[in-house]
Amino acid sequence: MTSRIVHIASNTFREAVRDRVLYNLIGFALLLSGAAIFVGQISIDIERLVVVNLGLTAVSLFGVVIAIFIGIGLVSKEIEKRTLYTVLSRPVCRWEFIVGKFFGLAGTLVVNTFFMAIGVFGALLYVAHKFSVPDAQILVALYFIILEFLIICSLALLFSSFSSPLLSAVFAFSLFVIGSFADDLRGFAGLTHGFTRWFATGAAYLVPNFSALNVISAVAHQQPLGASLVLQNTAYALLYTVTALSGAVLIFDRKNLK
Amino acid sequence: MSAIEILGLEKTYMVGFWRKRPKRALQPLHLTVEEGEIFGFLGPNGAGKTTTLKMLMGLVFPTGGTARILGHEWTDPEVKAQIGFLPEQPYFYDYLTAHELLDYYGQLSGVTAVDRKRRIPEVLARVGLTDVKGVQLRKFSKGMLQRAGIAQAILHDPKLVFFDEPMSGLDPLGRREVRDLMEQLKQEGKTVFFSTHILSDAEALCDRVAIIHKGELRGVGAVEELTSSVQGKVEVVWQGTLVPASMKSLGADCHVTGDTVRAVIAENQQDAAIDALRRERIRLIAITPLRTSLEEYFVEKLQPVPTAAVTTMSTAVGSATGSAMGSRK
After folding, report:
1. Model-level pTM?
2. Chain B interface disruption, residue of A90, A99, A255, A258, most B CBs within 10 A
3. Which of A112, A173, B147, B153 is the most exposed place for a label (fewest CB within 10 A)?
4. B201/B278 same-domain check
């Protein structure tokens, strides 16, 4: 069972690499090195803040775009091209396929993030000439970004298990945007009454709370991050991911592959 | 033990956007395939062949009925380790080489690393893909993809192989090679179940065939039995271009082709025809009873079924699943 998931995940990772998904790193490297040089020239005393903000935001956005656009095709492309037939006609359960695909994409994003993180630290070294102790918090921000990717991957898989790739992309991206303002949505719910309050509160708790996972600004300003936040965010992201993946499995388990 | 027992599998799809209405893709199908035989599943396009295969593979869920494969419930995942499947017009992960593709499928089928290392070159050679090392599948021709598809279906040495239109996309030489391969599989004791609408392939290969049309089983039986019914006529072939008047008087339907004449006459006129040819000192080449071809049987089975006959047929097929001739002879 586990080995089949590993094989499916490895093949998904290999697909991403051979389809040149990691080429985005070139764009990222160009953006970051250009920004570092530019910021180094125009900023006084805030080079670190700008580079950390810009770098981590770019890591997040590049990863989200990859997670959505690969995630929505993970299942639908296999159905459309009928590559799934020769997989599911083997001793492979449907849930193993979904979970394997998820881990394959998650692995791709972790590797991608690893290389981008090297770029961020490189740019930081270029502008600040040395690392300081608070820079270690960048690792926490990167960890939260990976948690964010896990949620988005699972959502993309969930949507692609019942809708077209285009609609899946729209749903996943909309949820990312709304989820990034989840705290504001909660604040808005507190200001309203009646049905609107119920609806806004429900929506605020239903959408993934990406704003809680976004600590880029805090890290850039060298504010301390508590261990409890790490634990809470980890538990939240894993729970959300498992729930979304379970939904994808439940739907895919009943799907006729016409 | 039967290799496949299909016990009333049926499929109805809901079609339409606003007002869904049922559309039956496969009527309750009862069919038994014995171990070690090559079984042809024949029917025109859209007959329900692929739907049946997809249900047996667990890709499409039936609306009714059940099936047993190699003595187990067909939904048992472990059964799938013992079967191979080639889908119609297969498409594979085109970023992989044939070797990588087989390695991946071997892993999924539970083939050990040692066996994969040994089996993959063997199987690739067996399907004629020897010079493709390092070539990604996106650079393969349709025929090469079909060969890769056959390779993945037999890689794990399955007891039962399902081929959906295996000759599709192959040139005449490739078709012959696939036919040879299927016969080899049979000699190795494997069961081959394949769907096709190319009757010559079925006639040349199959021990038994089933004919399906519009989702309904129209006939099933041994190819020899289906094609053995003599029509009460014989074909007389002699050398030359001369058609004696005495032959014409027997009501012979004569055709001159090059240096031979072929005449079709009633079986009871056979002796009179031989006498007529002897009198004219003409060299007789052959006298052959005319038999129903599989094509004729196939065409006959595709004729519309009267409502009453459908009812009778369904009952007959349902009760006698198989080994004998179909219900609508």
Report:
1. 0.83
2. A90
3. A173
4. no
